[in-house]
Amino acid sequence: xxxxxxxxxxxxxxxxxxxxxxxxxxxxxxxxxxxxxxxxxxxxxxxxxxxxxxxxxxxxxxxxxxxxxxxxxxxxxxxxxxxxxxxxxxxxxxxxxxxxxxxxxxxxxxxxxxxxxxxxxxxxxxxxxxxxxxxxxxxxxxxxxxx
DNA sequence: GCCAACGTTGGC
DNA sequence: GCCAACGTTGGC
Length: 147
Known about the structure:
There is one protein chain. This protein is of the alpha+beta class and 147 residues long. It is globular, with a radius of gyration of 15 Å. It has helices spanning 5-8, 10-15, 29-38, 109-114, 137-145; strands at residues 2-3, 20-22, 44-49, 56-63, 68-69, 93-94, 96-108. The strands form two sheets. Strands 1-3-4-7-2 form a five-stranded mixed sheet. The chain has a single domain (2-145), classed as ph1033 like domains (ph1033 like fold, Roll), CATH 3.10.590.10. The longest helix is centred in the first third of the chain and has 10 residues, at 29-38. The protein contains five helices and seven strands, in the order E-H-H-E-H-E-E-E-E-E-H-H. The structure holds a DNA duplex (12 and 12 nucleotides).
């Protein structure tokens, strides 16, 4: 799961009360579908810093609840307001994420790209812009051995 | 700051 | 339904 450290980084999550944060504002259908279909309470996720000097994986977090409607879509004063999301049939979903730990070091995008076995990772696919995407268990375990 | 890649919008 | 125009993402 990507986030821009200038806006909300791993330390921001760590410093939140309860070390949790609602992951709202996702406005991409594919990412929405991953929230809806793939995320279960207790699942682990990498925290990825994007759009910054050294993009890469910086930590581990966990899904803290079940997916629920993203109510920022109904809030006219929210930057995530979406008039097409009907409260009776919410278009966008969110999930709460809980801080687990920081990696001992950042595993940079550049480093991830240098490992041939990770070549199929969604994150590394050309042109990928998804903010939420699956990691296979093999990829997960391999990446943690790099730490 | 540039720009490739991608998603969305809206005219037709 | 097509596709040009536009907006966004995000690495570099």
